[in-house]
Write a structure and sequence with these properties.
Elements: H1 3-14, H2 20-40, E1 44-52, E2 59-67, E3 72-75, H3 91-106, H4 114-117, E4 120-123, H5 141-144, H6 147-158, E5 176-178, E6 190-192
Parallel strand pairs: 3-4
Antiparallel strand pairs: 1-2, 2-3, 5-6
Length: 193
Amino acid sequence: ASLGQRLVDMMKEIGLTSLDGLGDFIFSRTRDAMLERIEALPKGSWSNELVTDGYDEPVKLAATVSVREDHVEVDFTGTDPMSRWGINCPIIYSKAYACYALKCMVAPDIPNNAASLAFFTVSSPVNILNAVRPAPVALRHIFGHMVPDLVLGAFSKALPGKILAEGAGALWNIHISARPVAGASGRRAEMWM
């Protein structure tokens, strides 16, 4: 049977006509557990910077993590400006990886859902981690995958000895493509990896 059918069968077996109550229960428990974890963290702000290779020159990524009474903020102010190359990262990608790091640090055992992620805010001026149209973003993972190390590095100052050291967070895949030059025979472009 499909997963959907198994769910319907389970609901019939235990007499449920809706999942709303179960969802509300899960979200309520998640909110309470997250708030408890955040309240237990030291309050303050801590910053971190990573400098890594870019195309023309090194790129600085910067983050400040601020733990408040009831939420955690990440701000990428101080990060280098957008690049003319495709290594820019849209903010939604940066937010996803920042929240991933925060969730791993604050509450890895609490369900990952809208209620657990609601306690995290991510902000940034326009820069390489908050690229806006028409910035090229095809290789967003180059710096996006460094965001967890950046955020955890800031958090490590709040919790010395409790955060893993940065490792091999970035995926350095090489993407090369060739296109026919103007006036060429029209042969299709080929791609190598």
